[in-house]
Amino acid sequence: MHGGWRGPGGRRGPGRGGWQQADLPDADDCAAWFQGRLPDGWFTGAPEVTVDREEILVVGELPPVEDEPADGADRAALVTGRITRFREQTREERIEIARQAEHRYGRKVAWGARLGDSVELVTVASVPVMTRLRQPERIVLDTLVDAGVARSRSDALAWAVRLVGQHADEWLGELRAAMAKVDELRAKGPTG
Question: How far is CA 179 from the centre of its chain?
Fold first, then answer.
């Protein structure tokens, strides 16, 4: 039996994520920090802030466009143009805010914008994840590549993860809530 990584005070890292999670600053107040830090007028309300071990994703709703075209192609062009304008007009300020947040939370910051039901991510991190797959799993990935569903095994794996996330969203939410409860109980327990 091996003991695993030991954190400050000889305690094992906090279960979920082990050492990766233990070395990161707490980001519980991240959404509130961004809401207070972002300039008025960028978004119609509080942005949606999603945090994981590597990245903070900030997605805000842009103000609606008056006289929005009903035609699909024209509407798509309008949305793309509006989000591109937001990206260009806010670039310098977004860089400064991201720099401050990265210093505070120890994670990269990515941005996105929503206009109606269209969402476009302006900047996102693409983080490598190492995994070991046996032949049956590799064959599934190769089938997706050969069929043109994905360009590479990496794309095929990302596609499969997105599909699981869409179809298991409720279950994943329950799992996250249970993990948070375990973390709370660990924090209340005796130390080493």
Answer: 18
Rounded to 10 degrees, the C-alpha dihedral 20/107/186/15 comes to -30
105, 27 Cβ separation under 8 angstroms: yes
Q: What are the structure tokens assigned to 111, written together?
A: 């941005």
Instruction: Over range 140-157, report the average pLDDT.
Output: 90
Burial class (CB in 10 A: 0-12, 13-18, 19+), 166: exposed
Q: Count CB atoms within 10 A of the CB of residue 57.
A: 20
Q: Following DSSP, what letter does each residue of 165-184 receive, concatenated?
A: HHHTHHHHHHHHHHHHHHHH
SS3 for 145? helix
Contacts of 121 (CB under 8 A, 6+ apart): 57, 59, 110, 111, 112
**Which stretch of 17-26, 28-37, 38-47, 104-113 has the lowest confidence by average pLDDT?**
17-26
- What confidence category does residue 132 fall into, taking pLDDT thresholds of 50, 70 and 90? confident
Instruction: Give the Cα separation of 7 and 172 in Å (integer).
Output: 28
Kindly state the DSSP code that residue 46 receives in the 8-state scheme.
Answer: P
Report field, pTM of the whole predicted structure over 0.70: no
Burial of residue 190 (number of CB atoms within 10 Å: 0-12, 13-18, 19+): exposed
Helical segments of 38-152, H only: 72-105, 135-146
